[in-house]
Amino acid sequence: MTTVAPAARSLAGNLPRRRWSATRSLSYGFSALAAGFVVVLAVLFVWQSIPAWRHEGLGFLPGKKWFYPQEQFGALAMIYGTVIVSLIALLLAAPIGIGAAIFSAEFIPRRLQLAVKVLIELLAGIPSVVYGLLGILFLRDWIYRALTPFDPLSGDTLLTAGILLAVMILPTVMTLCDDALRGVPSAQRQAARGLGLTQTEVVLSVCLPQAARGMVAAVLLALGRALGEAIAVFLVVGRQDNQWPANPFSLRPLIESGQTLTSKLASSETNIAYGDPLHWAAIVGLGLVLLAMTVTVTLVGTQLMRPREGHA
Amino acid sequence: MRRFKHHVFRFATGACVVLACGVLVLIVLAIAMRGLPAISWQFFTEQIRLVGADGGIFYNLVGTFILIGTAFIVSAPIAVGLALVHGVYLRERRHRERLTLLLYLLNGVPSILFGLLGLIVFVKFFGLGKSWLSGGVLLGMLILPTVTIALIERIASLPGKYVEAAAGLGLTQSQIIWSVILPQSLSGLVTGSLLGLAHAAGETAPIMFTATIFAGATFPHAIKESPVLSLPYHIFILAQDSFDPAVGAKLWGTALTLLGLVLLLSLVALPLRLKIHEEAHHG
Questions:
Q1: pTM of the predicted model, to two decimals?
Q2: In the CATH scheme, what is the homologous superfamily, with its name and number, of domain B39-282?
Q3: How many CA atoms lie within 13 A of B85 on its CB side?
Q4: Domain boundaries, chain B
């Protein structure tokens, strides 16, 4: 359910001005609560993770070993898990989502378009724990059987988590790409058709170039969702610590269990860690890394989503 | 040749639609087929027995409604405040854009981090332990961007003549807000809240450390140390050891109930949402 507003108009110009009013103070007061929440969120994750940065230094990020009884805290294997799982999801969901968006925005009648859009947006709301349940009861076994020739240890693999995430972010990719394509003025389509181009040529040479920014943004926002998804991934990823492959470019780790930042944070280790300041700081440090990744992706995505100057 | 290319392209993209919609519809059907046998009146009115293998999910439903009710009460006034600041008080486009950026950033924060934040602030710092209130507040902040953006869109689509007419009658700024802008944009608040609550009802990560337990809670009688049961957490725990077929049946029933609740909330929002879209495009 990702909503992206156009640069919304303001009624300010039409209203009489007044310096102070109770309504105004209330509005700003409640807004300050929201802003305060965001500030507290950012500050707490930095502040509470300080002991971990002191202990490990910048080695916290490229550290390959996470073993808390010996106070070894390295985030690399989990960052690797998060990146791989999200990349698999993106590689699967982006082409299908973009293709589906092109078909529904360009090739089908308006009424049917609306029906597809409504269906997809409803399905975007399926809770992640329900996806997790389906992953645990179906996908895991299918993957295990499909991988039998490669002799996997179980069906809980990075690949399983990636495929599950792909299904989860598919509606996001599709509906936002659909919005981007619909933002292209239909006069341009008609003009191109008038020049004798086929519908496909119109899509490829007129619509896609103009909607490209919006579509990249759609994929990035979906990536943000994939990076931060905890519950569904937790249930199927296997949660095996310290899975840093000897050769990072081999495909073998994909069919082995792994750990992502989110699956670590959702595990019971979060409850255990609170008693020990260093362990807790390391857990919060993982949260900070995750926050930095998702904020970056979201920032780039929303900047691209905005209409270019003079285009609106 | 060009026609041929066109047909291939159309077929390929069409296959993507069929695949995407097909997978998602199959998911809903699979849950419905497995969940329906478990659904009965007793399933909704009894409490859990035998670690989820028997009985119903009454207190899980109660807990989920308490959580999303609290989320609504928390998010609605903040969303109205933010939307008014955006649509009425901020006069510079630059400032308004900063406010929407803040909302998008909040929207992008992973839900598990809300849970971690809640654990630090509510559970430990305020010493609430596991409490329905922490969960409700966290879910409220989680859905705040959805609610606020729906409201902002609605306010932005109000015809300028409404406000001009009210100003012409000599109403002050605050009077115009209370008697014109807010009543006219109520549908935005309702739609946004319904969508937000649909999202909140299915979230597990923000409440697992802060508000919900698997068994042994009924109606909360206080704020401190008063957890509730909930639908998503019930599924989350049972999914991890679902080898007992009796548990399996109840598990699918719970999943279907949660899915039904979420889809119902989004469906109720749908007509209003379509109407807003129509007005935004033709108003």
A1: 0.91
A2: MetI-like (1.10.3720.10)
A3: 25
A4: 39-282
